Every structure is written in structure tokens, then in C-alpha cells.
Amino acid sequence: MGRFINPFTDFGFKFLFGREVEKELLIDFLNDLLVGEHVVTDIQFLNNEQQPEVKTERGAIYDIYCVTDTGERIIVEMQNRKQPYFKDRALFYLSRAITQQAKKGNWDFHLDAVYGVFFMNFVMDKDIPSKIRTDVVLSDRDTGKLFNNKFRQIFIELPNFTKEEDECENDFERWIYILKHMDTLDRMPFKARKAVFERLEKMASKANMSQEERAQYEEEWKVYNDYYNTLDYAKQEGKQEGRQEGLQEGMQKGMQKGRQENKLETARNLKELGVVDDIIIKATGLSKAEIEKL
């Protein structure tokens, strides 16, 4: 383990971005995420466990759930493991945050905007050209004009970010670079450019954690590390099995080719001895057309 915590563990992610006392980190990241569109000056953390209205329905537990000073509700999630219906899950999470705004009695259906920010430690769609960020809004299909600004999903696919430190062009990219490499860094980059990264260096340093925080983090880090070690082992096993299957397939093809050549050689010799085709067919299993070509 390196000098800084791994922000992709559940504890590490919430330790950096999910605490009221250090909320300026999340505010700064959100402003770099939404630069040129919106400015967040303050946030209030909400209860991340949203109970269903009916017991038989399913609730939702968000990693981080907050509301801005201008009323936008923002869900921030870190997802390490690929799921078959992750897009549906993201849609469900935002839908829950929308429906829970319903008011009893006479209500005009005014809604606060809901944003979902999803960090993914995997590639969402391998058949789609790689990009670090995917923004989903409600817009008209033909014109592309925004239809309703109350729904926004931002997916951040970390494996698709391949820039080096000196290649980062803006503060959003600098955030992503730091988060992706944090647990392997010896120093926190970009401190001279942006003061919040100096604050992040102190926050993310394991040396500044209490014994209780350190113990909880290391326990979760072991689970995280075991998962990825298991995943890497499974990939290596799959590659080895693939190579072995390829070798076996190659041997089988080679043997089949050898048997075919033997049959052709036998048929050629019988034909030179004047043996009729019907007998050669029975002796070798070759077709009449194959024998006529000899």
C-alpha cells in the first residue's frame, strides 16, 4: 500500500467526498465537472438510505446524496464491479430521487433537478468508442434541443482515462488523474495550480488518519484488493485455458490434415495399381470427386 488511500474503496470514497466537515472537496469537484454550466456554492448531505413508500417496494442506498444551495439533488456513486444492468440501476436511483419529491395534498408537480454522477472502474460498453465521460440528458430526438433540465446522468469510465500528468488539460482531468492514481502516488500533483489539491493531500494521507479510521480503511482495502486479485487470476486462467484450447484445436486440425493426406496417398497408389474407383472409395472413405482429381 502507498502513501495515500485508495479512493475506490467504499470507506476511501466516502472519507474524501461524503463528510460534512470536508464538503469543500466535493463542491470543488462538482464545479470542475459542471464548469461553464453551473456553480455550486454549498451543499447539504442528505440521508443516503432512501426507504420505499411501500414495504413491498425496493429502496435505494446511495454512496453520497446531497442537495445544493440552489436545490439540485446530486447522487454520487462509485462502482467497482461491472453489472449487467448498471444503466438500469442508475436510472432507478435517479427515479427514486425524483418520486420522493412528491408532496401530499395539492401539489403542482414542481421538481428539483436530479443529477447522477457515476464513477465506474470498468468500461460500460466495449462496442462504443472509448470516452472518459458520457452525459445523458432529456432532449428532443430530432433537434437535440434540451426538453427538460430536471434529469442528468454523468458516467465517468475511469479505465478510458489514459492521460499522463503533464497531458491533463483542465481541472476536471486533473481530478480524474489524481483519483485514478492516488494510491500509487508519492506526492500530490497540481498543488501549485489549485489549492484544493493541497487540502486533498492532507485528507488522503494515511498518516493523518486516526487508528480507528486506518483500521477500517485497511480492512476494506483487503476486500477490494482480494476482489481484483481474484479477477486478475480469473483472467489469467481464462487466457491460459484459451491458449491450451487453441493448442489442442491446432493439434486436432493437424492430425485431421495428416489423416486426409494419408488417405489421398493410399488412393493414389491404388489407382496406379489399376484398382477400380468403387474399391478405392470403400478402402479410403474418399469421395468419387476427390479420387477423380488424383
Please give a structural write-up.
This protein has 294 residues and is α/β, with parallel strands linked by helices. The protein has a domain at 10-209. It has helices spanning 10-17, 23-33, 86-99, 171-181, 195-204, 211-272, 277-284, 288-292; strands spanning 43-45, 49-50, 60-61, 64-68, 73-79, 114-120, 133-139, 146-157. The chain has a six-stranded mixed β-sheet with strand order 1-4-5-6-8-7, sandwiched between helices. Strands 2-3 form a two-stranded antiparallel ribbon. α6 (211-272) runs antiparallel to α7. The longest helix is centred in the C-terminal third of the chain and has 62 residues, at 211-272. The protein is elongated and about 100 Å long.
> Largest beta sheet, briefly?
6 strands, mixed
Proportion of β residues?
Answer: 15-25%
**Poorly predicted ranges (pLDDT <50, ≥5 residues)?**
none
- In round numbers, the mean pLDDT is 85
Query: Structural class, judged by helices and strands?
Result: alpha/beta
Number of strands: 8
H/I helix tally: 8
Strand arrangement within the widest β-sheet reads 1-4-5-6-8-7
Using the CA coordinates, give the radius of gyration. 30 Å
